[in-house]
Amino acid sequence: xxxLDTYDLKLIEATQAGLPIVEKxxxxxxxxTGLSEQDVIDRLSRLLKQGIIRKIAAAPNHYAxxxxxxxxxxxxxxxxxxxxxxxxxxxxxxxSHCYLRPRALPHWPYNLFAMVHGRxxxxxxxxxxxxxxxxxxxxTSDDILYSKRILKKTGLRVSPxxx
Amino acid sequence: MSLKAPKxxxxxxxxxxxxxxxxxxxxxxxxxxxxxxxxxGISEKDCIARVxxxxxxxxxxxxxxxxxxxAMGGAFCLCAMSVPEERFxxxxxxxxxxxxxxxxxxxxxxxxxxFVLATQTVEQIDRVAREIAEETGLEVLLFPKLKEFFIGxxxxx
Lengths: 163, 157
Hints:
The complex is a heterodimer.
Chain A: H1 6-15, H2 25-33, H3 37-50, E1 53-60, E2 69-77, H4 82-90, E3 95-100, E4 112-118, H5 121-135, E5 139-153
Antiparallel strand pairs in A: 2-4, 2-5, 3-4
Helix pairs in contact in A: 1-2, 2-3
Chain B: H1 13-24, H2 32-40, H3 44-56, E1 60-67, E2 75-81, H4 88-96, E3 101-107, E4 113-119, H5 122-136, E5 141-143, E6 147-148
Antiparallel strand pairs in B: 2-4, 2-5, 3-4
Helix pairs in contact in B: 2-3
């Protein structure tokens, strides 16, 4: 991306694996990158505003939290209501990801994807029913895909070097 | 499931509150843990120790900035294939051999293989998807993200 300078790229490289968990994490990053603590804070704020950083936050491991059951629920939602309904579904506390995607007809009529987590399949199914109620008549059909096996999982690492 | 949940980790209500709090965002100030600690009514030291323990034990898989590869010029795309049962392992190997495949799940559906491509450009998504289709002789369906809705996920512990 053209509006990133060398220091932005250094900052991205220094923080993409995570922040140090110390009293002054931005100062720790500053000493690695040759910036001042305030520079680090200012640049991260700007990257956040630009949307290059989506959020500075923690991500929990659902399995470790006992949420061993997860299902990808998929819904065929009337395009006229897809945005409005997507927002409602995305705001549910048991939905970790919610996306609008294109349908792939005739194989795949669904355009709204919502990942649902629970302690058991029964819990996931009951949450699926809650989403169904929320969507009401705007949804004509739906399905749920349980994950059977993880075939590959690598960290999504950005490589700003070529950016 | 090949992800291992760490055993013998007991979360108290402060841990749960902390996990939820940190999912929503982390302050951009000199002593951010101090600010988080104040909001939760614990000490800064306790807050840092808890986050270290949660991160170290794998309860938190990530802690820090979440970069948007798309905003940085990269591209992501969810893809799905319908793989005949007898060819499943062979096809999984072919798909996983591509470095651009970030993760890949077997799912209970006719479309039984779901993977995410992560590349530098949108054009590369199409190229890799085409390569996989040619190598496997199977159709690759692309489900690019049109819109992402706000995430409200919360832990009840």
